[in-house]
Structures are given as structure tokens and as C-alpha cells.
């Protein structure tokens, strides 16, 4: 591990310790909600076929997911 990465890791541990002791606010807040597969695909300019292939799922599974259904994701 190079010095720069090590120093970043040490800094992160120090920040986490300060947060746990109540001395600091969290550095970032992350909300993890339902993914929007259509938006992700369109942001990348990908076709359904290419996006499904990259995810390793069928196009039918992707289409169902984009429509809000929770399909079983069979492996391709």
C-alpha cells in the first residue's frame, strides 16, 4: 500500500472514531433506495439488450424490473 492510500485510510479511521464518540457529524449521508434500472440504462445510453447483457440477466427480466415488477433473475 502506498503512503497516500495509507494516510487516507488513517484519516478515515480517525473521522469514524470522532463520529462514534459524538464529536463530529457524518462526513456523508447515503440514502439507499430502490434502484431505477431504466434511468441507469438511459443515463449510459445503452439498449435494453446491452444493459441486460452487462448485468447478466435476460432482456425479459430487465423489462419486468424496469416496469416495477420483481422478476426472478435467471442467469444467462
Descriptive terms for the model:
mainly alpha, 76 residues, single chain
Report how far the terminal alpha carbons are from each other.
37 Å
Work out the strand percent: under 5%
Q: Please, what is the average pLDDT? A: 87
- Helices, by number, come to 4
- SSE succession: HHHH
Relative helix content: 40-55%
Q: Describe the largest sheet.
A: none
Number of discrete domains: 2
Low-confidence segments, given as residue ranges, are none
Structural class: mainly alpha
Radius of gyration: 20 Å
Annotation, overall tally of beta strands: 0
Shape: elongated
Summarize the structure.
With 76 residues, the protein is mainly α.
Would you give an account of this structure?
With 76 residues, the protein is an all-alpha fold. It has two domains: 1-29; 31-71. Helix content is 54%, strand content 0%. The chain contains four helices and no strands. The longest helix is centred in the N-terminal third of the chain and has 18 residues, at 3-20. The protein is elongated and about 50 Å long.
Write the layout of secondary structure elements.
Blueprint: H1 3-20, H2 37-43, H3 48-55, H4 59-66
Helix pairs in contact: 3-4
